[in-house]
Amino acid sequence: MRKRGPWHPSGLALLVTMLGSWPGPSLAQQRWAALDPNSEGSAAVAWGATEEEARQRATEACKRVSRTCANGPASTSDMREVFAVVCCTEPKLGCAAAAAASRREAQRNVQEKLAGAGYKACSVRHYMSAATGKKQ
After folding, report:
1. Based on the structure, what is the number of domains in the chain?
2. What sign does the CA torsion over 116, 121, 126, 127 have?
3. Does the pLDDT of residue 121 top 50, yes or no?
4. Domain span holding position 107
């Protein structure tokens, strides 16, 4: 006689179906990534369960390694996106970041933000993955 585990296959299928329609929070938790850039390029991507948590962690992470943090983290809930970090030298040194689906789009978004604030002579410092935090 074969021993069965505590879950019969049909019971397990029913449980999975029930959990999939459960009115509570999803089994897959949302994850946010954020990056608060600095002029040294040493800021790290930070993650959190909410946008606010990720942004706060990014600011804290930047302040641990730099005194030149932008204090305006960029954030995304799409882990496929990439952060572009752009720094400008006029009228003074300033850096910002933006996230988007492609490098080109992220760069364009952050450059538009900086131009709107009166910055020029800007260049991309680096790109970072929202999912891994690694420079690309």
Report:
1. 1
2. positive
3. yes
4. 29-129
